[in-house]
Amino acid sequence: xxxxxxxxxxxxxxxxxDHDTSPWKIAVVDDDDAIRAITRLALGRLRVDGRPVALxxxxxxxxxxxxxxxxxxxALGLIDMVMEDAEAGLRLVREVRGAQRNRRVRLVVRTGxxxxxxxxxxxxxxDISDYREKTDLTAARLRTLALGxxxxxxxxxxxxxxxxxxxxxxxxxxxxxxxxxxxxxxATAALASALAELAGLAPLRAEALRHAALLHDIGLLELPxxxxxxxxxxxxxxxxxxxxxxxxxxxxxxxxxRLPSEEGxxxxxxxxxxxERWDGAGYPSGLAGEAIDVESRLLAVANVxxxxxxxxxxxxxxxxxxxxxxxxxxxxxxxxxxxxxAGTALDPAFAQLAAANLDALLAVRAGARTGSA
Length: 373
Description:
Elements: E1 24-29, H1 33-43, E2 47-48, E3 51-58, H2 61-70, E4 74-80, H3 88-97, E5 106-111, H4 119-125, E6 130-133, H5 139-177, H6 184-198, H7 203-213, H8 225-233, H9 248-256, H10 262-273, H11 294-316, H12 331-341, H13 348-356, H14 358-370
Parallel strand pairs: 1-3, 1-4, 4-5, 5-6
Antiparallel strand pairs: 2-3
C-alpha cells in the first residue's frame, strides 16, 4: 500500500495571474475626427474577459497600414471604407490580409456612403468580418460588435497557439526519430524566419514560416532508417535520380496537406520544395527561379547554412557538435559557400543577404540549437 503521507512533491511554482491583463488593441481608421471621437467615447471603458481596451487611431489608409504593421496583435480594426478615395478602406484591408498576412485580426468596415460596394461580395472576397453603415452603429451596438469581434480574435489566437504547440511537439518527435538530425529543424526554422525579416517580409509572415519550417523534413519518416542515414550523409546535389530518396519531399507534403490551416498548407509547400534549386536542377519537381515559393527559397538558404555549419562543427568537435558555440565557427568558408551557391542552388538575392548578415544569423542559429531562442 502506498503511504500517501510519505510522498514528496515538487514545490509549487509562484502564483501567477490566471489570464493576461494587457489591453485588447482596437484600431480606428477613419478620416472623420468626429467618428473617431464618438468611437473613443463608446469603447473607451469596454472590458473583455477582465481586460481593458486600447484604441489606436489613424486618419488614412497609409496611416492605417503603418499602424497594423507596427501592432500585429491588434484584435479589432474599425475601418472607414471611403477616406482619401473610395477604395482607401479596401486597400487597407487587402494589405493587412495580404502582404502583412494577418488572418486573426477581426476587420469591420464602416461606411457613410452605402451602395458604393456590393456588400456580400466585399465581405466574402476580402475576409472582412462585418460591414456596417455608420448610422446603424449606436454606442450600444458598437460595444456589442466590439465584444463579439474581440472574443472571435481571442478564440482564433487560442486555436493557433494549440496548433503551434502540436507542431512543436511533432518536430521534437521528428528530431528524436532521425538521430543525425538533432536540432537541425529548430535551427533551420529560426534561420529562415530571421532571414525573412531581413528580406522585408511582414513579422507575422516570418513567424508563420518559423513554425511551418519545423516540419520540412517530415518526409524522412517515410524512409527506412538505412535510407534516411544515406540521404543525410549525401550532398544534396548527389542524391541519385529515381527511387525513394528523391520522393521524400512529396511524402512529407502529402502528410502535411492534411493539416487544416494556412500554416499547414505553407508547411506542405515547404516540405515539397525545400530541395528545389534556383537553376531548376533540384528535385522532386525541377522548379526554377520564382516558380519556387518565396518561403521555400528562404528555407533553402537556411537549410544550406545550417548543414554547412554543422559539418564544420563536426570536423572540429565530432563528439559534441551541438554544444559548440557560434563563436567557434569560421564564418569565412560559410560565406564563401553561400555566395558560390547564389544563382545556382540558391536564390541569389537571399544568399547574398545571408552572407552579408552572417554573424547575426549564426547567433540566431546558436540560440535555436541551445534552446535559448
